[in-house]
Amino acid sequence: LNGTFPTNVCNATALRDLVLTGNELTGGLSSEIFCLNTLELFDLASNSMTGTLPTHFGRLQNLLILDLFDNFFSGTIPGEIFHPNLLYLDLSFQFELNGGFPADIGKATSTTLLAVSQNFLETSLPPSFYNLTQLTYLDLFDNIFPGQLPPEVGLLSNMEAMFLASNSFSGVLPTELGLLTIIESLTAHNNNFTGSMNASHPFCAIPFAEFTLDCLEVTPNCATQCFTDAQDPGFT
Prior knowledge:
- By secondary structure, the protein is mainly beta.
- It is built from no helices and 19 strands.
- Helix content is about 0%, strand content about 30%.
- The relative contact order is 0.09.
């Protein structure tokens, strides 16, 4: 498929799954999509869609999976996207999303996967972010997120993979990371973290498979791989 988003989708009044991944769709999201209040899966990954993300997403309260990976959406993330039924949200590889997460992200209490890598998100994670206690996979790679990780990060105890690399996070990595006892991967290099993470840090007792840090800024540490400024940190 190519061209703009189809305008006749409203005729499918009982539609639950709409998968248009890997086409050549262009332009913005048609307003017609938001009359499909039965929609549970909306997959537009790997197209060439542009424009801002509409607030009309708030009409899709039955939506479980929203995959907009690899498009060219711009602007901010509307709070209306987040609701208690949402399980999966991928806004990665837009390259033009800015701002940050709205406070309404805290409504997405069932979300297990959240990915926004390779954008220009630049404001601190809001306190409501740590309401997402069902998260198992978090990908914030390659944005400009600032600020420190608060003790509330320990509330994310279902986390299995957390990609924080290539942002502007700072401060000491909190001991509450040790509450993420089933985590397998944490990438935290190419940030501004400081302090140390030696064997006495609770996180170091977790049998993780991957843990990356900036080795000159956080020392000593128990990372599986550490980086210096001369090394290329461009991976998650």
